Amino acid sequence: MDMNANSSAPVRRSRTVCLAAVAVVGALGLLSGCGGSSHPKPAGALSPGVGQTLPGFPGASGTSGTVAVSPPSAAPSTPYTSGQPSAPAAANAVTIRNFAFSPAALTVKAGTTVTWTNTDPDAHTVTSKQGSGGPLNSAPLTTGATYSYTFTAPGTYPYFCTIHPFMVATVEVTP
Amino acid sequence: MTEHADESNGGGEHGMTRRQLVRHSAWFGGAVVLSVVAGEVISHIPGSASAAPASSADLHFVQVSDSHIGFQGPANMDVAGTFGMAVNQVNSLGFRPAFVMHSGDLTHLSTPAQFDQVKQMMSQLDTDRVFTVPGEHDSIGDNGPRAYRQAFGQDTLGDGWYSFDTHGVHFIALVNTLHLEQLGHLGNDQIDFVRKDIAGLSSDTPIVIFSHIPLFAMYPTWGWGTDDAVQLLSMFRRFSSVTCLNGHVHQLFSKTEGNITFHSARPTCYPFPKPGQGPAPLPQVLPAGRLKDALGIRTVNYWQGNHALAIKDEKLA
Questions:
Q1: What is the pLDDT confidence band of residue B200, given thresholds at 50, 70 and 90?
Q2: The Calcineurin-like phosphoesterase domain covers which part of the protein (chain B) (predicted)?
């Protein structure tokens, strides 16, 4: 690897000529090459795009060899649950497993409460497809969390996971 | 362009020889060093002689990605701890990066508390400035985008996009996790912003584009792509060097299309399987002690002269 790279160096070197002007501009930035010490930083090292203000925020000052990891500023979120605590193993339950809704097409009668249960290690949502005007709008479901919705009006309800929008499914509600 | 045949097909670890992989893995986090030299970003495996002499003309910056603060599960029982280690690693590089870019999925569930925690942790980074782009986990529901913008979106345009310059390199930070339509999506407003943003740039200006979701079709079945990226990238054909740095896929991957090279970064939380391996991009539970091998940071150096060890990931056209 090293030999190959070395052998190619002359090729690159010839190309660095066009970089010279760029590097001069960079020198004005006066980025300190080693260790963090002097503050404040010289202005102009980072400049916003035309007509913009520089976003982001300044990094830490000083030479912190260690970082104190602050604890969460809020208690760990408890698994989200809503509606019925236990989803009956009937035709009104949808399991989220391996980034898919199962069954992907569910048919229920009007008045049925459907419960989704997330068994994945990642979070998902149950959300009516954009433009469908549907009512499904769950909070993010962590592992083991459930979401329930009672369908009152017949119709077709396409939905998806807003975090993983390739996950799509449908509930068909019959009279 | 073809310095190293073994690396020329990209593909992260796929493209390495066994010897390279051993060296690669021996380094904590297995970071790939990218260097902008003569207008091109090149990558190489960190080695003993890879450190270039520091110079005020050099640009060093760092990319970290996919911290998922708030995740709780067997794939990583302490995502805050591993992100803290990544912060320490950045602070121990031996140089002070000009900036650190977090390329999205700062949080797992977009809650204000999670945003606050990750912001506090990133404020420990010893750097001039910290930038971010949002991931889809930072964009959940109606409140996610708002919470992200409140925490990180000051002085950004539109849905949170922006650009900046340093050392002659033009950087563009994009948002492709809102308005998802099966895949990542940029939208016309953002594409118009980029069109105007680059209109006055000389074609030999090195361009670096940050986004969370890849701008190339890495694996659309798992949502690993951006549906209107071609519209965006077509505007960059005139530039001699365009480098797109993304997160989202939780693994190293490189790909070159014409003048544009894409590099997917390692996460700081947990790995995903390679595309198509298994049913879904499920958080991978690794054997005890192996998790750190799958996590890491990325440093990018822009310097003149000493680049003898540089290896460029480039697909043979």
A1: very high
A2: 60-251
- Per-residue model confidence (pLDDT) at position B12: 38
- Top-confidence residue, A121 or A1: A121
Mean pLDDT in residue range B164-177: 93
Cα-trace Rg, chain B: 18
Mean pLDDT of B67-72: 96
- CB–CB of B216/B227 below 8 Å? no
Whether A131 contacts chain B with CB within 8 A: no
- Are B69 and B106 in contact by the 8 Å Cβ rule? The answer is yes
CB atoms within 10 A of CB B117: 24
Which domain, by its residues, includes B64? Answer: 58-315
Q: Is the pTM of this model over 0.80?
A: no
Q: Residue B171 pLDDT > 60, yes or no?
A: yes
Report which of residues A40 and B240 the model is more confident about: B240
- Residue B276 pLDDT > 60: yes
| Min distance A108 CA to chain B CA atoms (Å) | 26
Q: From the CA of B273, how many Å to the nearest CA of chain A?
A: 13
pLDDT of residue A90: 59
Could you tell me if residue B310 is inside a domain?
yes
Site of tokens 């992989």: B21
Report CB contact under 8 Å: B37, A56: no
Question: Contact A15/B37, CB-based, under 8 Å?
Answer: yes
Cα–Cα distance, B160 to B149 (Å, whole number): 7
Residue B9 counted as domain residue: no
Is B72 contained in some domain? yes
Report yes or no: B108 at the A interface, CB cutoff 8 Å: yes
CA dihedral sign of residues B264, B266, B272, B273: positive
In a domain, B98, yes or no: yes
Angle at B131 between CA B142 and CA B176, to 5 degrees: 45
* B contact residues 137-156, partner A, Cβ 8 Å cutoff: 137, 139-141, 152-156
**What phi, psi does A21 have (nearest 5°)?**
-65, -40
The DSSP result for B155-213, as a single string, is T-BTTTBEEEEETTEEEEE---SSS-BSBB---HHHHHHHHHHHTTS-TTS-EEEEESS
Asked if omega into A103 is within 30° of 0 (cis), the reply is: yes
* CA–CA dist B60, B43 (Å, integer): 13
- Going by pLDDT thresholds of 50, 70 and 90, the confidence category of residue B42 is low
If one counts the domains in chain B, the total is 1
The answer to whether A118 contacts chain B (CB < 8 Å) is: no
